[in-house]
């Protein structure tokens, strides 16, 4: 009898693992003006330099135009340069400390636990991924850092002796965001340097495209929004005012996103309802595919 009980316990354990691997929903997010109310550098980092927000980003624009530089690499250089001019040590801890000043849209701080609970009620495990062109070091200091399964963000390489930033280690622009999409689907998020695994053909993805949802607001999000939508996932563009609403309405008109919602993550607001209904839809598709996959009339996708 004890042997039978042990067998059943081991069997149940492997069944649970199998189901968890099969039933995962990936919620992917931009950060600045999607979860946070403005660019993360605006809250504390730029004021600490004695610059206005406008002055810092104007310096970035001038540097990029003068040197024909990618805008993401451009702002990372300007951060380094402006700190050096002021003898400010740009260390990991210095940047992480900026994270505690970041302000979020309504409902964001309770959003993750709430959506996780809803997904569980539908038989799914929900994983959250951040894909941001901002500083990962700043994100690490925010109240949301432990909510993400993985954080893709711009990172510096820090000198082992001085602890100061000396070079960009990883950069996320609009093109890199699309690679992150494939990494998440394949479960290849462990390293930034492994180009082989992310490009290998796989017979079964850890997270099917149809189970992937992306939320973003800006121009750097457009390629991954289209990629997600065109592969059967769901893209949601968020806005915080009438000016931004006009921009995302254009995305909807051009069929680049599935939905647009005001940036309020409170319960029963538009984003909350749309994401929950999307989870419902994924659950129905999952039942059709896995419960009736032996039926030749049901196409397995």
Task: Find the CATH superfamily of the domain at 23-39 and 106-155 and 170-291.
Answer: HAD superfamily/HAD-like
The side-by-side strand order for the widest beta sheet comes to: 4-3-2-1-5-6-7
Q: Helicity range of the residues?
A: 40-55%
CATH top level label of the domain at 23-39 and 106-155 and 170-291: Alpha Beta
Largest sheet: 7 strands, mixed
Number of helices: 13
The span between the termini is 42 Å
Query: How does CATH name the architecture of the domain at 23-39 and 106-155 and 170-291?
Result: 3-Layer(aba) Sandwich
Describe the structure.
The chain is of the alpha/beta class and 301 residues long. The protein has a domain at 23-39 and 106-155 and 170-291: Rossmann fold (3-Layer(aba) Sandwich). It contains 13 helices and seven strands. The chain has a seven-stranded mixed beta sheet, with helices on both faces. Helix 8 (136-139) links the parallel strand 2 (125-135) and strand 3. Helix 7 runs parallel beside helix 13 (270-291). The longest helix has 22 residues, at 270-291. It is globular, with a radius of gyration of 21 Å. The chain starts with a helix and ends in a 10-residue tail after the last helix.
Structure keywords:
301 residues; 13 helices; 7 strands; globular
Short description:
The protein contains 13 helices and seven strands. The chain has a seven-stranded mixed beta sheet, with helices on both faces. Helix 4 crosses helix 5 and helix 9 runs parallel beside helix 11.
């Amino acid at each position: 009898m004890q042997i039978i009980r042990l067998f059943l316990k081991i069997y149940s354990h492997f069944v649970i693992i199998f189901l968890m691997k099969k039933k995962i929903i990936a919620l992917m997010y931009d950060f600045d003006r999607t979860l946070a109310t403005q660019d993360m550098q605006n809250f504390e980092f730029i004021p600490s330099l004695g610059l206005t927000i406008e002055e810092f980003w104007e310096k970035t624009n001038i540097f990029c135009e003068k040197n024909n530089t990618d805008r993401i690499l451009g702002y990372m250089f300007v951060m380094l340069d402006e700190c050096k001019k002021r003898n400010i040590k740009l260390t990991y801890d210095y940047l992480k400390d900026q994270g505690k000043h970041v302000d979020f849209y309504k409902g964001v701080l309770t959003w993750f636990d709430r959506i996780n609970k809803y997904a569980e009620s539908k038989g799914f495990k929900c994983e959250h991924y951040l894909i941001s062109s901002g500083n990962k070091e700043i994100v690490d200091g925010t109240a949301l850092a432990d909510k993400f399964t993985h954080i893709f963000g711009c990172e510096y390489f820090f000198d082992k002796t001085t602890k100061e930033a000396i070079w960009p280690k990883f950069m996320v622009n609009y093109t890199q965001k699309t690679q992150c999409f494939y990494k998440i689907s394949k479960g290849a998020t462990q390293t930034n340097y492994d180009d082989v695994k992310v490009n290998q053909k796989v017979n079964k993805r850890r997270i099917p495209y149809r189970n992937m949802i992306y939320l973003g607001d800006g121009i750097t999000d457009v390629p991954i929004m289209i990629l997600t939508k065109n592969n059967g996932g769901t893209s949601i563009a968020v806005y915080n005012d009438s000016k931004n609403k006009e921009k995302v309405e254009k995305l909807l008109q051009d069929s680049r996103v599935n939905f647009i919602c005001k940036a309020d993550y409170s319960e029963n607001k538009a984003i909350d309802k749309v994401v929950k209904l999307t989870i419902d839809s994924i659950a129905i598709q999952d039942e059709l595919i896995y419960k009736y996959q032996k039926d030749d009339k049901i196409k397995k996708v």
